[in-house]
Amino acid sequence: MGDSGRYQCLAENEMGAVEKVVVLLLQSGAPGRDSEIRGRRGPAVPGHRTLPDGSLWLERVETRDTGTYECVAHNLLGSATARASLVVKGEPRGGRGNMIGVINGQELGVATLNASVQQEARSGVTTLRSSIGHIPASVGPLMRVLVVTIAPIYWALAGEHGDALNGHSLTGGSFRQESHMEFSTGELLTMTQVARGLDPDGLLLLDVAVHGVIPESLADADLRAQDFQEDYVQTGPGQLFVGSTQRFLQDSRPMSLRCNHSIQYEAARGPQPQLVQHLQASAISAAFDPAAEALRFQLTTALQADVDECAWPTDLCPEGQRCVNLLGSYRCLPDCGPGFRVAADGADCEDVDECLEQSDECHYNQICENTPGGHRCSCPRGYRTQGPGLPCLDINECLQLPRTCAFRCHNLQGSYRCLCPLGHSLLPDGKACTPMERSAQNVTTVSHLGRLVPWLRPRALLPGGAYHAWVSLRPHPGTLSSMDRAWCPPGFIRQNGVCMDLDECRVRSLCQHACRNTEGSYRCLCPSGYRLLPSGKNCQDINECEEDGIECGPGQMCFNTRGSYQCVDTPCPATYRQGSSPG
């Protein structure tokens, strides 16, 4: 337009010169009313308007409107054409799929899964309702604890807050999730979940395979699920690590289920907007309908990218307090030392009773004594300590000097028993012997057809005590039980007239992992990275990241794994830098 104006043309040769003046006027026109839009809706696309910057605005688009659109603009000087492709993504409306596997030795067959979702526009939260049909009644009540069965669906369809992307937005609905679950009582469960995108009706297709054990005590229990949070951490291209602890009330008693998930999806789709995203699950309900053989779950979810205000260079909390990052916020709490925690009022610290909460490190045969800021493990009478972190060892009183018993000493776990020769009885001191005197009133005649005489067996054994009776057995017509099986201490069995140690480890499923036989007893052992629970039978994974204070290198975060831990590289996304907090 700036080239408009008067121009002079001059032509010269040997004959002379000619001069001509011309006026140049440049005109332009906006497409405006003379523009025409062609696309899938036909030669003229209704519900559109042209914005002042020349871009096209389409209203009320639907999935069927996906395709190539052509915009033709006309004016007095001619026309111009522009083409663009439009892709309308279908919003997921729920999920469906199949579930197979074995739980507590019971084959599930092929269970059918269906889920529907309802999004609240104002709050941005999503309510998910699901039903899993054809569940055997023998395991259905146990599976009420497995809200994690529908984890891929509630992650894929979670309400998005801020820059957060749910599973469908991040992966397109195609991903694989491997889940490992461990109950607080030691039972283990694994689950593989494969999402295969959306079907034409907008339902996420999901296949689930499960294998493992659920505590049988949950079958008839009143089970109430508590709110929980899952942390989705980008550990690499197309890789997420998810950790959570789901808590329940079992007949008003607390129990927990620790979950670790690994998610893989197409790396070309890119990472999460933030390194960590938090999914908050609330209003959780679970029920099993035995008549319909249906397991039903309902919960509300919301997903939000976390901003760690506590990592900012400025101190947000006053001296003596520490900053705790929360979902979308932060909080200042008292800086309580080890063995203490913030009280319910949030203003003071209180001692943690590790013995009461069973978070102590005492072994099954040790006594836990709570102390301010900690606890100590001591040995009961008849046992001695082997050192920190080791169980108590039985004291063999029979080897002590001076001799414990006058005639013969038999060592027991935590105690001993003095024996006397035939025809002698133990004195009240439990150590010396004296000859017995027979009298008619001490002779008892028994006629018994059973395998044993219950009242002849001592109900309880007092340390150093003894039981004596003169018994006269007369044969009864028929089969009389053999009475030559004399009483032996617990953990022993009589063989060839001698009490021999009973190897309890031969009994299957006595220990969750390894079993070691000891004289008169046994001991359950745990693999490295696990601790023995107070039951003395089950093992629990040790969270080294929390309990051992593992510090990973710069740009790394510590993630607990079963029996160990892993430092995972977590570089900051573009336009972000590493904060001052470790990991």
Automatic annotation (TrEMBL):
EGF-like domain residues: 351-389, 501-540
A GO cellular-component term linked to this record: cleavage furrow
SMART domains per the UniProt record, alphabetical: EGF, EGF_CA, G2F
Keyword entries, A-Z: Calcium, Disulfide bond, EGF-like domain, Extracellular matrix, Glycoprotein, Immunoglobulin domain, Methylation, Repeat, Secreted, Sensory transduction, Signal
Disulfide bonding pattern of the chain: 505-515
GO molecular function: calcium ion binding; transforming growth factor beta binding
Residue ranges of every copy of the Ig-like domain listed in the record: 1-89
Primary site of residence: other
Subcellular localization(s) per the UniProt record: Cleavage furrow; Secreted, Extracellular space, Extracellular matrix
SUPFAM superfamilies (alphabetical): GFP-like, Growth factor receptor domain, Immunoglobulin
Pfam assignment, any one: EGF_CA
Residue ranges occupied by any Nidogen G2 beta-barrel domain in the UniProt entry: 91-313
Protein's UniProt keywords contain Transferase: no
InterPro entries recorded: cEGF, ECM_structural_protein, EGF, EGF-like_Ca-bd_dom, EGF-type_Asp/Asn_hydroxyl_site, EGF_Ca-bd_CS, G2_nidogen/fibulin_G2F, GFP
PANTHER family: EGF-LIKE DOMAIN-CONTAINING PROTEIN
Protein name in UniProt: Hemicentin-2
The organism of origin for this protein: Myotis brandtii (Brandt's bat)
